[in-house]
Amino acid sequence: MIDKFSQAEVRRSRGVGICGARGPAWAVMLLAFGVLTGGFSGVNAQIPQGRQSSTAVDSQRVEGDAVLALADAAMIGQKSAISPDLTLGWQNAFLKAQQGTFVPFTLAVNTTSVLPDAVLVYVRAVKRGGSPARNSPPIDRGRRADRAAGRRSGEAVLETTYPVDAIFPVELAPGGSRVVRVRRGFSIAPGDYDIYVVVRERPRSVVTAASPRAAVLSQRLTVPDFWNGELTTSSVMLADRLTVLPAPLGADELVERPYVIGQNEIVPADDDRFQRGEELVVVFLVYNPTVTPDKRFDLQVEYHFFRSGAGGKGSDGPGTHPPARDGERYFNHTDPQRFNPAVMGGQFDPSGGQPVLAGQGVPLAAFEAGDYRLAITVTDVISGTTVTRDVAFTVGS
Predict the structure, then answer these.
(1) Which distant-in-sequence residues (6+ apart) come within 8 Å of 383 by Cβ?
(2) DSSP letter at 348?
(3) What range defines the domain where residue 132 resides?
(4) Domain boundary residue, one of 223, 242, 257
(5) Are residues 212 and 72 in the same domain?
(6) Are 124 and 164 contacting, i.e. CB atoms less than 8 angstroms apart?
(7) Contact at 8 Å (CB) between 42 and 178?
(8) Domain boundary residue among 175, 195, 223?
(9) Regarding beta strands 386-396 and 273-275, do their DSSP bridges make them parallel or antiparallel, or are they unpaired?
(10) Are the beta carbons of 258 and 285 closer than 8 angstroms?
């Protein structure tokens, strides 16, 4: 049962506190979940937190319990009453956090009719292969408080906890659109997880005759470990744009904008399809380069493009670059990027945890319509270590 919800850590009857999982070093976020557009809609927005009517509180409990029940059903493979006209899409990245890994994500709420004005969103992470006692859905959730009140002195009550267990209201403000994207993030330890997301329409009033629409999404995540000391990168993010902010954001703003890195804001692309009049923008961070005792480091990043569907083993073309794969041809490249103290400045010190922000913006006018692969090679010049990343994208006619 949920007493109220306005932030991530409101699940008091479940003993859930999502503390201890700190956000990325560049954002210092505990857990990037919160309220969009300042609180509840309708009647609840006008009732002070400490003076809400019992009817409003009961309504919130009913909403919260309904959302948790949908997640519980999804965990055990049961089909629940979801709305066919409401669907969810998921997109995420992985970034190094002060503890564990930060996972910024974009949740696309889609409809074939009219989007709700406001929804309740719930996100749960379940460790695959974890302890059944911790990961199994609780039984008879609504009566847990009654059982706790009637237990004998000293009798323990088993509470189910999850690595991520967050519920928050969102004002969608669709404005006639059939898709709205909600961005948040969470920190989590490396490992394999099942993610369950529930979106449920919020009633326009405390008493409503219509059944709220709901949608459920399940997603598997393998969360990488960025703290092993090896040269690596974050996810390579396709972006609509990269904006330099005039000043750092406050903690409340970061909740709703989890793709802010320092004073750089990444706006993720909706998908991997682009038109020839657009620009391909890729952004990523490089972690754990070799740093000498005198604070020297030296990274080189190369970007090579291959076109798919050319048939046969593609020609390699001039210059040195990774080999083409079966069914693709080498297309082009950009000039290599170099990151060292001469470029980054003497105060930049990767050994202190600062990541190297890398990326490219490439106009697509010269790209014919088709499918492409961008091969990125990051070389630690001092140690000779290399890592490669591939990004697939499509250019439309």
Answers:
(1) 231, 290
(2) -
(3) 12-223
(4) 223
(5) yes
(6) yes
(7) no
(8) 223
(9) parallel
(10) no
The 10 Å Cβ neighbour count of residue 166 is 24
- Predicted local distance difference test score (pLDDT) of residue 45: 28
CB count in 10 Å sphere of residue 293: 6
Non-local (6+) Cβ contacts of 228 within 8 A are 288
pLDDT value at residue 59:
78
- DSSP annotation of 121 reads E
Q: Which of 173, 67, 198, 63 is nearest to 117 (CA)?
A: 173
**Which amino acid belongs to residue 315?**
S
Q: How far apart are CA 369 and CA 309, in angstroms?
A: 11
Residues 6+ apart with CB under 8 A from 37: 171, 173
Quickly tell me which residue has 């976020």 as its tokens: 29
Q: What is the pLDDT of residue 319?
A: 61
Q: Write out the DSSP string of 101-139.
A: EEEEEEEEEEESS---SEEEEEEEEEETT--HHHHSPPS
367, with CB counted inside 10 A (0-12, 13-18, 19+), is buried
Nearest CA to 83 among 107, 50, 109? 109
CATH code of the domain containing 293: 2.60.40.10
The CA distance from 118 to 27, in Å, is 27
Q: How far is it, in rounded angstroms, from Cα 237 to Cα 282? A: 6
Token pair 């990245």 is at which residue? 93
The pLDDT score that the predictor gives to residue 361 is 96
Considering its fold, how many domains does the chain have in total?
2
In a domain, 7, yes or no: no
Task: Please tell me which residue, 324 or 315, carries the higher pLDDT value.
Answer: 324
CB count within 10 Å of CB 323 equals 10
What count of other Cβ atoms lies within 10 Å of the Cβ of residue 383? 12
Q: Is 381 helix (H, G, I), strand (E, B) or coil?
A: coil
